[in-house]
Design goal:
- The radius of gyration is 22 Å and the shape is globular.
- It is an alpha/beta fold.
- The chain has helices at about 15-30, 50-70, 85-90, 105-110, 115-130, 140-145, 185-195, 210-225, 235-245, 260-265, 295-305, 310-325, 330-350, and strands spanning about 1-5, 35, 75-80, 90-100, 130-135, 150-155, 175-180, 200-205, 225-230, 245-250, 270-275, 290.
- It has a 6-stranded parallel β-sheet, with helices on both faces.
- α1 packs across α13 (about 330-350), α7 (about 185-195) crosses α11 (about 295-305) and α10 (about 260-265) packs across α12 (about 310-325).
- It contains 13 helices and 12 strands.
- About 45% of the residues lie in helices and about 15% in strands.
């Protein structure tokens, strides 16, 4: 089977990139021929507001060119709405779109309500313009089902064999934030909370993102002796920092399904996260410490508490859950079954059984 995967990003520490790169490897290991179109091999404009639109346009042009050249794929599988034009134009028998959150809500949070509404129109066309829609979180599935679209839940996953065996502890009491520096991730809330964190607790930030938040993080690193902004680090190093920490903090306002939580669960790292849809698809009160989003004082109080005293039973249950529910063998198998269903249904429509004998 030939599969074309289209994604704005297919490398780095981000959750979508990790999902896409691992899916491509899993399909390849099962004998599939996989080609990936992403910003790593496609021209785009790396500027806020133009990043996704420019990728959508150039990826679509690449897909159209493949069609003109006579290429053929069994499945075109896009990740997030900017991939849809390329999936739509790709020379494929079946088309799948996977959403890693509610796209229009994410755009509205990042770029304002006007662009959020405009992206909602485009999103509506995209989710109805494919043969199958999948979502990595149950809450996103419910959102699109309310729009009248049959969305299938296929979660993110993690492979514990690819995670580091040893952690990197930089300070005696260490709390890590690993991920994109953006408002939907609640990083601005963490910056405010940092001023109220116990001076003996060191906040270590790994990641990059919105320039204004990066600048605020650098400034706070110079101001507070217990706040440390490391910037972007390769995934292996970022995971080692996480594993060496007493607590992973994820103060998001909105999430699809955060891969960083799956990684923390598999690494047996205690979790402090926002009580929001997306996060609750992964953890609940039985396996993580949860706090209401958007409140720096409550976040700081939770960090001060759980950095020193975190129930070990939560860590054990989180580890058991990630192995049982979020393995790549299970998730890749669900994608393969979906591909086969779509291709089987298409073959049945194209080649109906001949009518039986008269009178049968």
């Amino acid at each position: 089977m030939r599969v074309l995967i289209v994604s704005p990003r297919a490398s780095g520490i981000g959750g979508v990139a990790q999902h896409v790169s691992k899916l491509a490897r899993e399909l390849g290991a099962r004998g599939f021929e996989v080609e990936v179109v992403s910003v790593e091999n496609t021209p785009h404009v790396p500027v806020k507001g133009l990043y996704n639109p420019s990728f959508a346009a150039t990826a679509a042009a690449r897909a159209a060119l493949k069609r003109l050249r006579g290429a053929k794929f069994d499945v075109a599988h896009g990740h997030n709405v900017p991939s849809w034009p390329a999936v739509r134009l790709a020379p494929a028998a079946a088309r799948v779109l996977t959403l890693h959150g509610v796209f229009s809500e994410q755009v509205g949070m990042l770029h304002g309500p006007l662009l959020g509404r405009l992206s909602g129109w485009f999103e509506g066309r995209a989710v109805r313009g494919v043969d199958a829609l999948t979502c990595v979180s149950r809450s996103a599935c419910e959102h699109y089902r309310r729009m009248g679209v049959d969305a299938r839940y296929i979660p993110n996953a993690v492979d514990p064999r690819e995670l580091p065996g040893e952690g990197l502890r930089l300070y005696d009491r260490q709390v890590a934030y690993v991920g994109r520096l953006s408002r939907e991730k609640g990083f601005d809330v963490l910056l405010e909370a940092a001023r109220m964190v116990d001076p003996s607790v060191h906040l270590v930030v790994v990641g990059s993102g919105v320039r204004e938040l990066e600048e605020r993080a650098r400034a706070l690193s110079r101001e507070l002796p217990n706040f440390h902004y490391l910037g972007y680090r390769p995934r292996e190093e970022a995971l080692r920092v996480m594993k060496g920490s007493d607590l992973l903090v994820l103060p998001s306002r909105a999430e699809g399904m955060p891969t960083v939580l799956l990684e923390a669960m598999a690494l047996r790292v205690p979790i402090l996260a926002s009580r929001i849809p997306g996060v609750l698809d992964v953890v609940d009160d039985s396996c993580a410490a949860l706090v209401e989003p958007g409140d720096p004082a409550k976040l700081a109080a939770a960090i001060n508490r759980y950095a020193f005293d975190y129930p070990g039973a939560l860590v054990d249950r989180a580890y058991e859950r990630v192995l049982a529910e979020f393995s790549w063998g299970r998730v890749a198998g669900e994608y393969v079954r979906l591909y086969e269903e779509l291709l089987g249904a298409r073959a049945g429509r194209a080649d109906p059984s001949p009518p039986g004998p008269a009178g049968s």
